[in-house]
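DM from R.C. (forwarded with permission)

"hey, sorry to bug you on a friday — could you get me a structure for this? deadline for the figure draft is monday and I only need the backbone to look sensible"
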Amino acid sequence: MNDNFNYNHAAELYPGRLVGGARGSNRYMRFPSAAEALQFAIEEMPREMLRGATLEVDEERFQGDAILDLYMASGYPLPRGKS
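My reply, with the result:
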């Protein structure tokens, strides 16, 4: 994992598809910080959508397990809720 990841950079989140190929009500979203995007992806987005989700931060892309890894990393700045 990138130890130099900046959780304060703006982020774009592209949720994956739900089972059956249908999209949920969640589409592309922009967040003021990567930390907030990660919090939404892990704590609020349906789990099925995480598998195909893409988080873009400062022209770098993270998908699926990499999103979870960033959320679980020791440098994650926000309090974690139930996941």
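R.C.: lifesaver. The longest strand covers residues 11-14.
me: no worries. The chain has a mean pLDDT of 87.
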